Structure formats: structure tokens, C-alpha cells
């Protein structure tokens, strides 16, 4: 195999089986010798924040000298980003080797079941096999969509399950109500396990608590009164969490403080379970953590922040953050979203902060109509301008008129990845 063939298998639209259970995924893992059973896992689900919590926790583990595998999605620039060991992306050679091992068993499962495996199922198998072969001390495993029927839920036990947030996204798969979505994501809570989650709404907290009680799992809830002395700039945030004072993070936004607190709780649980993790490891790990494309500053002149907010909860967090960081300032926004999203509702959230909105489609087939969106904005009296490509957009942003402006780029991670990659050029 070569990387083109690998990507055709693990990153294309395929799969015909209904996701009514994990039997197909379990059959594939069984044929591989169940490598997931040889791993100690922290399992993470949530609408937003999974990647940030993974980044904080993996950075802490790195400071502690713990060999940690990290499985995240989606990627910004290269699919190799999704599978890391000790902070290093899986190499093409390792990716090919693991996929060549998995591929024959994919064919067997598909012949036996009469169903095609989804690409995410195959990629998850590749990742779990790679982590086992690499002899990781711990694996941070992020769900793709949901939790109960997510391919990653093939793991039977975990050191901790973390639920980062709950919001309205992927409703065709997860359900129409916040309770249904929460129930799906709570499916990662293991029998006699432990779940860590932030205080959310009464409805959400009740569903998580009920699930934990049903499987006799312990609960750790991060609440706002545990967080104090918050100070935020467009470069870093400082805060105190419980007895830990003066913590510093460079992932921007108030929501990232909560994500950092979830990682602190997970690190302390791991320390109780035999991993050598000190408060210094936690402090340094939080400060050094990076997660590209989430309130990330990629330019000083003009000031450009890129953020993969592409659902209502994510845009609400973005709105809260910019109102704190840039009070009473009118900003330039760049937006590009998929056409199946409620993008008009989300754009309306940022209109009070907007001087001008630049639109660009993140994908020629699935992206929204940039021209049509600009026309809709113009009809509301909002100055706007449509662009045919990110390259064309960047030429505009590098013109003299934007030199001292503040620009917020948000929407699809396809747009964020392109913006990050092409701006560096």
C-alpha cells in the first residue's frame, strides 16, 4: 500500500451498515487480537472541547514522561495528525504498516456481515493497533460522533471518561433533543468506572448522573465556583482551580479554562491510579499545551484569530470570548460553513460585533454559497464581501487596509485548516 491507498480506505465516504450496535467493530477488533484490551484509556466525548482537553492532558502526560497515544478528529492539514504517540504524528511508514495489517480483516468482516465498514471504524482500528504495537502507557481516545455507538467505544474499560460539553450538532445521528444527545455521549461511561464533566444545564447533568448511577460509576463535576482569579488576554489566560493558584494556558477563551480544569481532574485521577504526575507536571503541561485552529492567533498585523466554531455552542463560546477580549471594538469576520449547517443563525450571533463580514466556501461541493450568503448579509444592512477561494481572501487580508485591523476567522475546520496552511506561505 501507499498513503493514497491508505487514505482511500480510512478517510473516504464508505460504509453501509446501520449503527445499531458495535458488533461489526467488535468483530474487526477480535480478528486483530483485541489490541484495545491491552491499553489503558482516557475516553473523551462532547460536542466541543474534546481536542482541547486532549491537548491539555497529553501535554501534562508529556511533562510527566508518560508515553501517551492520542487519537483525535478531524485533522486540519494531514490525516497523520489524528494519531500521535508522545506528541509525534504517526509516520507514513507506520500508517501504511498498520493499515496493511487491518485491511485483510476489513475484507473478512465485510464478507461475513454483508456490510461495508465505515472509514472511521477502520481508522479507529488502525489507531488502536498502532498504540498497542507502540506499547503506550496510556491512550487518550476521542470519540468521532456521539459515544454509545461510536467506534471508539469498543474499549471495555477506561481510567476515566470525560464529557466536555453538550450542544446541538449531528442531530440526524444523535437525536433532536438535548437529553437524547446527552444520552448518546454518556454511552462512554463504563461499568464501575468514573466520569468527569463540567456543570452544564439541569437537563444535561441529570442525564449524565442517571447514566453514571445505572452503571455504578463515580462522578467528578467541575463547577464554576472551583475556578477563580481569571484574567484573559489575546495571548494567554491565567486562573486558579481549587487549590492550584496562578495556572496559565495559551489556548484562548473562557471555555478553555473549563477544558483545562477537566484535564487537571483527569491528571489527578491518573496520579491516584499509579501514574507519577506532580503538580509541577500539571502546571507546565497546561502552559505548554497547544491545539491549532481553536482561538489561535496566526498573525499580529493584522491581528488574526482562527477558530473552528461551526455549531451553535461553538459560536456562542466565540461570541463570549470576543466580547471579553475586544470590548466595544468592531471586528472583521471571515466565515465559511457547510451548507447543511444552520449558518445564518450562527452568523447572526456575531453581527453586533461586526463591521464587515467576508464569506468564502470551505468546500466546492458541501460548502455554503459564499455569494448568496453575502447577498443575504447585504440585505440586512451588513457590509460584506464574497471570495471565490481562500487564496483570494488572503490577498485581500494582506492589503494595507487591514494592517491594523482585528480579524476573526470561524466556521468549518476545512476553512480553518486552509487558512492556517496558506497564511504561513
TrEMBL record:
Annotated GO MF terms: ATP binding; dihydrofolate synthase activity; metal ion binding; tetrahydrofolylpolyglutamate synthase activity
GO terms under cellular component: cytoplasm
Alphabetized UniProt keyword annotations: ATP-binding, Ligase, Magnesium, Metal-binding, Nucleotide-binding
SUPFAM superfamilies xref list: MurD-like peptide ligases, catalytic domain, MurD-like peptide ligases, peptide-binding domain
Source species, domain of life: Bacteria
Mur ligase C-terminal domain ranges (all copies): 293-412
EC id: 6.3.2.17
Reaction(s) catalysed by this chain's protein: (6S)-5,6,7,8-tetrahydrofolyl-(gamma-L-Glu)(n) + L-glutamate + ATP = (6S)-5,6,7,8-tetrahydrofolyl-(gamma-L-Glu)(n+1) + ADP + phosphate + H(+)
Domain Mur ligase central: 44-266
Cofactor(s) listed in the protein's UniProt record: Mg(2+)
Pfam hit, one: Mur_ligase_M
Family: Belongs to the folylpolyglutamate synthase family.
Protein's recorded name: tetrahydrofolate synthase
